[in-house]
Amino acid sequence: MNFEWIQIPYSLLTLFIVINYGLLLNAFIAKIAARIGRRHGIHLFQNHIDLIKNYSLRTSITHGVMFYLGPVFRLGGGVGLLLFVPTLYGSEMFSNLSFSGDLILALYFVFFGALGMALGAGESGHPHAAIGVSRGLSQMTTAELPFALAVFSVSLQYQTLSITEIVSLQQGGFLNWTLFTNPLAVAAAMLSFLGSMMRPPFDVVLAPQEIPIGPPTEYHSSYLAMMQTNRTIFPIAKIVIYMNLFFGGAASWPVFFLKVFLIYMVSVFVGVVFPRFRVEQSIRWFLIYAVPLGILSILWV
Amino acid sequence: MMRELYKKTKQLFPLGDLTEQRHDLVFVSIPHPFLSSLLRHLRDKEGFSHLVLLTAVDWLERGEFQLTYLLCNRSKAWDMGVRVVLPREGATMESIHTLWPTAATYQRELKEMFGIDFPGSPGVNDDFILEGWDDIPPYRRDFDTLKFAEARFTQRPGRESLDPAQHMAKHHSDGS
Amino acid sequence: MKKELEKRTIKGPDGFEFEVDPLTDYYCDLPPTVQTPAYTRIIESFFNWARSESLWILGFGTGCGAIEMRPLMTPRFDAYRYGVQWRPTPRQANLFVISGYLSVKTLKRVIRSYEQMQSPKYVMGLGSCTINGGMYWDSYNTIKRLDDFLPVDLYVAGCMPRPEALLAGFQELKKIIRAGEGEGANEYAKRFEWYKKNQKRTIHDWDMPDYNW
Fold first, then answer.
1. Which residue of C has its CA nearest to A37?
2. C204 contacts chain A (CB < 8 A)
3. DSSP states of A86-109 as a string?
4. Per-residue pLDDT, B12
5. Does residue A72 register a pLDDT over 90?
6. Fewer Cβ close by (within 10 Å): the C or N end of chain C?
7. Least Cα separation, residue C203 to chain B (angstroms)
């Protein structure tokens, strides 16, 4: 990995673009949902305003060191995931800090935030936080399992652990995409994708009606703002990985925006159609439908 | 019909007169020592399986509390109210939470609002909706709620009250 | 005083005995402090704009008026387009809508919830009952003046006000916040003794710390 100082401002630029895109994307999707219900829906910049509001609150309460670190870990997970993955293929500016083994690192970062969250929420002293966290973590673990299998399958297929190389091997027409060269892995990963986007039918762990919104119950002001920031970065970062591994990556920002939007809409559409699963139902669903697909894809390669 | 039920039951219990409110709603009265055996009979033998409500009336002038147990026969859609009268001083009544567990909540409320005791009823002495109440029970008619409110709460000055009858008469002066 | 709040000795799972005083061990009762507006005037007014455009209401229906808040989420009134949304926990909320009459029992919960909200925070009194008791002016169990107990930014009069009145109230509140006058939390901190005196005069079984967050 060749490190140059100029990569740091470039990465920050990526971060800036992704945060704004994510906030607008979320508002846009909320707007679509509102229009379906014949409402006007939130202002397009409402997410920006909420974020500023939460950062500008004057007081906040702490429950100890881990309570501080929870949101920091979570945001670290999201930012790390984004920065160690090339955002645009072939662009010097937006390849960020990617290096030859970044695929494995990305897998770590996917889980990193959730673990920090678990520790932080545990320290908040909320009696239901531990239940909420264990429910969330168990669902997430089973949801990530097919994705990990699909990643192994893809790295076996291309004989590399570098995301940049995987993208470069998919260039030259969309028939070279992993979507068509290894459909089983993509199918397994897309099922896992539904589970990790925290949208219905797999969002019961974050639902306000549940054990009051589970882990984030006690988080407020700037803690909550950090978690909101992560909630905008993390899905995009995750989609970037999917786009790079399975859908041929993106060579320019317009293509990037389009592909991220389309992949995001997959989970939105599924969420609009299906009602919520309970945690044990979703775990069973992942183990029965998604994991065998992942194993098959490895065998198929 | 319910009149037949009344005649039949009267042979077993010292019931008072029958008040027929509607064809499917009647009230009977009974001396209070016989109440729980009558309720048990109605529940087990006559199909009045549902305790709709238990409420009290304060007859201050007579020095009595009147309790009304309203029962429902679901299959026939009949309602029957059973009334008992208690002396107002040191009012105590037998608890019926063994017949209907829900009665415990009504009895807890009556204890708090009227001061009628139901020994043995679960949680009957716990606060229900008045926390830290230190006056006489507020639903007793000798409790002066306005005086209490003036003493306990500060009123905002400038409040006006209009008598509804006079107010409406003024605005509809054609007398309609 | 409730039994579970009394000082007592507890035997832990490891057989170790220790003394617990729930009122001081489980809660923090540090009194609130006045929070000065941050930085320069320009930044503060920018923040005030953001605060006014993002009103998060505590989802706590304290009286009958709570029924007027539900229609606001529906397509007909759609309060979300004004940046209003409901949060399930006091820590994430900024606006407390006291919806209608407030009984003494509820007042206790309202005070606890209000104190857990993060500054700056706003209180809106909905309906005549919060202003002068309304039709419950002679009731033995409802408070008559909300501003004796909490710093109120805005009243919406009526019995009950319609959802439109509530929406107009939100718009009024936004103007107040933008003008930098939504300083109820600081008001509460400044006159803390006075508010506590009023609260304790009405709530007779005071079994919580003086301040809890």
1. C75
2. no
3. -SSTT-STT-TT--TTHHHHHHHH
4. 93
5. no
6. N
7. 7
Q: How far is C101 from chain A (nearest CA, A)?
A: 26
What stretch of H or E contains A79?
helix A65-83
And the tokens for C30? 């540090």
H or E stretch at C167: helix C163-178
How far, in Å, CA of B109 to CA of B117, rounded? Answer: 10
- Helix C104-116 to helix C192-202 angle, to the nearest 10 degrees? 150
Question: B56 lies in a domain?
Answer: yes
Q: Are C171 and C81 in contact (CB under 8 A)?
A: no
**Helix locations, chain B, DSSP H:** 2-10, 35-44, 103-113, 145-152, 164-171
Residue type, B145: T
A1 within some domain: no
Residue C97 within a domain:
yes
Q: Which two tokens stand for residue A35?
A: 């229009």
User: How far apart are the C-alpha atoms of C72 and C53, rounded to whole Å?
Assistant: 16
Asked if the structure places residue B170 within a domain, the reply is no
B176 part of a folded domain: no
Give the domain range for residue B108: 2-157
Residues in chain B whose beta carbon is closer than 8 A to a beta carbon of chain C? 127, 129-134, 138, 143, 145-146, 148-149, 152-156, 158-159, 161
Cβ of residue C157 closer than 8 Å to a chain B Cβ: no
**Helices A46-55/C41-53 angle, 10° precision:** 130
* Residues in chain B within 8 Å Cβ distance of C107: none
Instruction: Tell me what ipTM this predicted complex has.
Output: 0.85
pLDDT-derived band at C1, boundaries 50, 70, 90: low
End-to-end C-alpha distance for chain B, whole angstroms: 44
- Is there a contact between A217 and A67 (Cβ–Cβ < 8 Å)? no
Count Cα atoms within 13 angstroms, Cβ side, for C35.
18
Q: How many domains does chain C have?
A: 1
Task: Report the pLDDT value the prediction gives residue C95, as an integer from 0 to 100.
Answer: 94
* Burial (CB count within 10 angstroms: exposed 0-12, middle 13-18, buried 19+), residue C88: middle
Q: Which chain C residues have a beta carbon less than 8 Å from that of A43? A: 53, 81, 83
Contacts 24+ apart (CB under 8 A), B55-61: B55/B106, B55/B110, B56/B110, B56/B113, B56/B114, B56/B116, B56/B139, B58/B88, B58/B114, B58/B139, B58/B140, B58/B141, B59/B88, B60/B88, B60/B140, B60/B141, B60/B142
Q: Which residues contact C213 (CB under 8 A, 6 or more apart)?
A: A61, C28, C115, C116
What's the pLDDT tens digit per position in C12-43? Answer: 777 788 887 776 666 666 788 888 887 788 99
Whole-angstrom Cα distance, residue C213 to residue C203?
A: 19
Q: Yes or no: say if C55 and A49 are a contact pair by the CB < 8 Å rule.
A: no
Confidence of residue A212 (pLDDT cuts 50, 70, 90): very low
Q: What is the number of CB-based contacts under 8 A between chain A and chain C?
A: 81
Instruction: Sort out which chain A residues have CB atoms less than 8 A from C185's CB and list them.
Output: 58-59
Q: Which of A217, A192, A223 is nearest to A205 (CA)?
A: A217
Global pTM value: 0.86
Q: Round to whole Å and give the CA distance between B40 and C67.
A: 40
Asked whether residue A288 is domain-assigned, the answer is: yes
Contact C83 A42 (CB under 8 A): yes
Instruction: Determine, yes or no, domain membership for A32.
Output: no
Q: Name the one residue in this structure whose structure tokens are 């607008």.
A: A24
Q: Which of B88-92, C10-14, C203-207 has the lowest mean pLDDT?
A: C10-14
Residue B146 has pLDDT above 60, yes or no: yes
The answer to the question of residue B92 being in a domain is yes
Tally of CB atoms within 10 A around B154: 13
